[in-house]
Amino acid sequence: MLEIKNLHAEVDGNKILRGINLTINAGEIHAIMGPNGSGKSTLSYVLAGKDDYEITEGEVLFFGENVLEMDPEERAAVGLFLAMQYPIEIPGVANMTFLKTALNAQRQTRGEPEMKTPDFMKRVKELSAKLNVSQEMLRRPLNVGFSGGEKKRNEILQMALLEPKFCVLDETDSGLDIDALRIVSEGVNALRSEERSMLIITHYQRLLDYIVPDMVHVMSQGKIVKTGGKDLALELEEKGYAEYTSGAAA
Ligand code: ADP
Ligand code: MG
Ligand code: MG
């Protein structure tokens, strides 16, 4: 489904990604772990097509198509979804309006008809109940004054609504208490399917007790320095990242 080949990226002339190779098949969940500053969020921004990142080498293929040539709207239309470490706040736009606009923009880019308001309301109601997103949160401006947990639950609501084929979740667990972590994880697990793949970026092993990955990769200094099964996360929790940071610096 997704193939990242020798990806190098810079920000303001600083080399951040230094040759990432990663293949994710349909239905697989991969986790990327690693110390702060290793380039995890940079990888998610590059996949999302955020400005400011210069790709100096390599490619990213999604079902064989070059993602790096698509603008962010096209990426959403082909089924890529990125949940940001720091979700953006949009003061003038009600959450509900934002969700409807995002969904219909995706449908329009795909050449599909707009989803009418009654159908949309029904769908949002079902999904928001599962994710513990209140009616009040749907009426408020997007993410403005939302707690960390509310922002993350709302991101998973967006994801459930857009039904992407490939999801990147960047530190979805950061700032969540144990109840919010459970709700978010259940929401993510409900979206697991043989046709949908995910890349879960996290600093901590805890999230991976709830969302059990097929593969775990360690990123350090812009490279994947180790790959293993789900037990690698437990090993990292115990030993920390020290052996990988010193290894990558050498
Ligand atoms: P992680 O998500 O693994 O904590 P990031 O991808 O956020 O790491 O950051 C990787 C590195 O890139 C860090 O050293 C960070 O300081 C650097 N970096 C990120 N954005 C910029 C920027 N706009 N200008 C310069 N350096 C940046
Ligand atoms: Mg960080
Ligand atoms: Mg980060």
From TrEMBL:
Organism domain of life: Bacteria
Segments forming domain ABC transporter: 2-246
GO molecular function (one): ATP binding
Family: Belongs to the ABC transporter superfamily. Ycf16 family.
This protein's record includes keyword Nucleotide-binding: yes
Keyword field contains ATP-binding: yes
Keywords: ATP-binding, Nucleotide-binding
Gene3D superfamilies the record matches: P-loop containing nucleotide triphosphate hydrolases (3.40.50.300)
SMART domains attached to this UniProt entry: AAA (SM00382)
Pfam families (UniProt xref): ABC_tran
Protein's name according to its UniProt entry: Fe-S cluster assembly ATP-binding protein
Record InterPro entries: AAA+_ATPase, ABC_transporter-like_ATP-bd, ABC_transporter-like_CS, FeS-cluster_ATPase_SufC, P-loop_NTPase
